[in-house]
Write a structure and sequence with these properties.
Length: 71
Amino acid sequence: NAIIIGTETLRQVRQAVNRPVMAIGGITRENAGEVTRAGADSVAVISAILSAESPEAATREIVSRMVTQDE
């Protein structure tokens, strides 16, 4: 039973712990950058990649958004 916490709670978790934070579930091409900016050290984007017409292109787009939005 997953608990959906959203990016604001993720920010609070990031501030409260001194361990790596992994975001799993509901991570898409569109929100991966926002999730990492909120404090996730890494994200699981399995569905976003495997359901894409081109998994390679989807992966490149996600990484690009994360890098661009983090700068």
